Amino acid sequence: MRLVDAEATAAAGAALAALLRPGDIVALSGGLGAGKTTFARGLLSALGLEEEAPSPSFAIIQPYEPPEVRLPVLHVDLYRLDAPEEAEELGLDDALLDGALLIEWPERLGDRLWPETLRLSFAVEPDGARRLTAEVPGAWETRWPPS
């Protein structure tokens, strides 16, 4: 999927928000400035968040709960993790009971990413647009790509 600008990237996140349900995991990969946080902000805005979502780079986890969003979401940025084992202390599995996980830098988990994760990768094209590609597990086959 080609995303021509930041607005298109945020709109793609908003489209995914309509499909998100408890237990879902969305992993966002790509280099610095590739569009991961813009996509996440579009998703969170479409879930009802009125203010701009901060990047969770320093906090690592930014939780969102109803009524500010329609579905509990943990926006997680694993960039600062040094080893996959450090993620165990974050309690991410608990969030899946009634909410969803939105994970930036999922590579930091090593091979510990859940098998039913929708994996989205962002790449910057020469003209500045973003290329979004997806690895779609069985749990997402009827939902991705959004129509």
UniProtKB/TrEMBL annotation:
Annotated TM spans: none
Pfam families per the UniProt record, alphabetical: TsaE (PF02367)
Annotated Gene Ontology cellular component terms: cytoplasm
UniProt KW keywords: ATP-binding, Cytoplasm, Magnesium, Metal-binding, Nucleotide-binding, tRNA processing
Compartments where located: Cytoplasm
Keyword tRNA processing on entry: yes
Gene Ontology molecular function: ATP binding; metal ion binding
Biological process terms in GO annotation: tRNA threonylcarbamoyladenosine modification
Family assignment from sequence similarity: Belongs to the TsaE family.
Protein name (database record): tRNA threonylcarbamoyladenosine biosynthesis protein TsaE
Organism, as annotated: Sphingomonas sanxanigenens DSM 19645 = NX02
Lineage of the species this protein comes from: Bacteria, Pseudomonadati, Pseudomonadota, Alphaproteobacteria, Sphingomonadales
